[in-house]
Every structure is written in structure tokens, then in C-alpha cells.
Amino acid sequence: MVEVQCNLGIQSVASTMDQSLLDLPDDVLLAVLAYLSPVELLACRVLCRRLRDLCLHRELWKTAHVRSVVGDRGVARAALRLAPCLRRVFFGDLGPISSLVASTECAVTELSVLVRLDTEVAPATAIVQKFATLGGLKSLDLLLGMSLEIDTAYDLLEAVYRLTCLRELKISVCQNSELGDPRRDGARVRSSLVKLSYSRFQDPFLELLLTTHGATLEEVALLTGDSLPVNLLAAMPRLRSLTCHMSNELVYSHGLSRLETLHLNASDRFFTPNALEFFRRAPNLRTVSFSVPRQDPASPLQALAASPSARVLEVLNLRWGAPHLMDLTWLAGFIPRFPSLRSLSLDTSLLRVDLDGLLQSVTPTSAPSLTALRMTSSGCPHAWLHRSAVQELLTRNARLHLHVGGDIPRQCSCEWCSRGCHAGLRGTLSRRAMASHRRTAGCPSGCCMWP
């Protein structure tokens, strides 16, 4: 296999390619070129006429990502001028490149725009409208910075609201000002959004989006705020996934009984009574994430285990939000209550606790469906993997994959790092899935046999 590195200004590889890669048919050569980055594809274009055309093939660019930021505009400029399409473009520096966008014919699927100043509103509006006109735009991520006067952003918000091509919309507002209703004529566009992520609960523009796209929305993430628009959410016939902060307004209703995914970005101090009641009554939850409260930490799992969702729950993610000492022996008793559980994630990096007892409770009998266990250990994860409880866990559960969060410290002085064993884990541990078997069909990409 011939490895070719294409860098700007380097022409010496041309003879190598003349003797090898250029003898390949177009479809095979395209498969090789698919491994190159955008900057490498643009560099290879200058090597010969055949590569000039092949390096602009649509299949090579429909998964490409480029960024237009201060100090790094060159690749974005070239791609917008030459490439037929792009998967994703991030505009973090609007002024110098906005004139090029006006003439581009490059279709973009996912667009991210950072608007920091009032003077950037007009270029941002033109960019959004241009890529919507070219077709293919499905996702928009709009970040409104702290220095922006919200009153000046209404042209941009109106342009975003009138887009009927979008399937995903994310709006992040880095200030306390509300986004009002930007419509000047009061008209409402047709429903098209499937996913909506918004940075505040109380906001007229949010209510407008929820009302307009309620018929098609399937995933809603409300990232900050105090007042949850439960009535609007309950009226959405397709809503299956909700992400929100802990709120007293999270009240169970028939309309929310269709939820399959619930992520609660709560503090670890308490769990509201309404949230506990929601857990007890929800019938279809398959993925649940929350922070374990310090006060009565077992109460959320008790409510979930007593609910109709207990028999269908497949993914459970638990977090501990602040450093403290907590005994996790209570957690072991809940694992058998969820017979369909496939993935269990425990962020225990902030806990000062021995996890061996919990690991010993995971067996093919207590967790018959479990194939993924994600844990974040305090201290060196390499040393933790060498614990006998971890090795016994993998041996006992033949189908299990253990994912360890974090990485091995560079200057670790633990017994195992000092020995120099498993040096290949350094820098790659977060991508590994430890198991007692060799990788087979159906295993995750990072599956590797341990020890």
C-alpha cells in the first residue's frame, strides 16, 4: 500500500503517483482520496489534470468540514470557491469572507455562524439566506455573542424563522436579553424542524418556534432557564426526546407519555417531587440521564424502577456533580430492576469511593442485556483497569465492553505506569472498549481484549 501525503507546495510526490495511484481506475482512486483532508485535496489538485478534476468530486466533499476563523480562512475560501458541496462550515469571522459567499455555488448541509457584533448581523443574514437558496441546508447552529445588541438581530432572526428547509436548529444566546417575535407581517411558516436546541426557556422567539414546528419536532433541548413550556411540549405529537434543567414545571401529562429519551441537566443537590412523579408514571422511557442528588440519592432510581419504563429502559447515564464521598452499594440493588438495560454510564470521577463492590454486582444474571459499561475513575485509569475486580468483571460478563473515561496522566507514578506496561493505551484510552474477547462483528470500533 502506497501512502501519499499531499501538502501545499510539495510537488515531489508526483512521480510516485504517476507510477502507482494514477494507474488505478477512477472509482478506486476516489476511494483512496476519500482519506484526505480538505487541505490535502486542494493541494493534490495542482499535481496533474486528472487529479484536478477528481479532487473536486462531490463524493469527496459531501463529508468535509471547514472553518472560517481568524488566522485560518484559506481553506474555507478555497473550498467555497471550488468545492461543489460541504458537509459543515463554521463561520467565526464574518467580515472578510462574506463577499465570497455571495458568489459561491457550494451547497452546505450544516452551517454554524457566530455573530459577535452588530455589524456582523447583515453578513450573517446574507450567509444564511445564500446557503438556503443553494439548497441542501438542513442544520443551522446560530451563536449570538455577549456584545451583540439583540434589537439589531431581528433581520437575522426573521431570516432564520422563514427557512423551510431546516431539519435541525440550535440557537445559543450568550446574554440575558430576550429574543422577541421577529415577524413583521405576522405570517407563520410551515412546520419543518425535527430537532431544536435553545439556550433559554422564557423567550417569545422560543415559543414561536415551538408553536410553528410543533407538528414535526421530535427532539427538543432547552439548555437554561427556569420556566419550562410544558403545555407546548405536551401538544407535540412526535416529541420523543427532551433535554432540560430540573424544573418544578416538569409535570407528567398524557402528551408527554410518548417520551423515549429524557436528559435532566440538574444540579446534584435535589430532585423535585414533580420530576420523581414523572419518573414513576412515564411508560416509554428508553434513555434517561440525570445528576444523582446528594439528598436521598436513591430516590430517582426508586421512582424509575417502579415505573412502567423499568422493563424497557435501555440506556441509563448517571452523573455526580460535585466532589464528595458517597457509598454506591445502594446502586447495585437497582441494576436487576432494569432487565433491558444495554448501556450504563457512571461518571464517578468526582467521587472518593471504592467501586469494587459495584463491579462485583454486575453479572449475566443481574444485567442480562448489558453490553456497555462506561465509568470515569478518579486517579490513573490504567491502574484502575489492573484491579482484580475489573478483570473479573470482564471475565464474568463475556459480552460486556468497558469504556473508561479520561486518559492516562503523562507523569503518572502509579505502579503500572512506572513499569511501562500497556504504553499503547496512552492517548487512546478514551477510544477503547475493553472486553474479555477479541473484536468480532457487532463489537464497537475500539473493542480490544484486556488485559
From TrEMBL:
SMART domains: FBOX
Taxonomy, superkingdom: Eukaryota
InterPro entries with a match to the protein in the record: F-box-like_dom_sf, F-box_dom, LRR_dom_sf
Domain F-box: start-end pairs: 18-64
Cross-referenced SUPFAM superfamilies: F-box domain, RNI-like
Name used for this protein in its record: Uncharacterized protein LOC117648502
Source organism of the structure: Thrips palmi (Melon thrips)
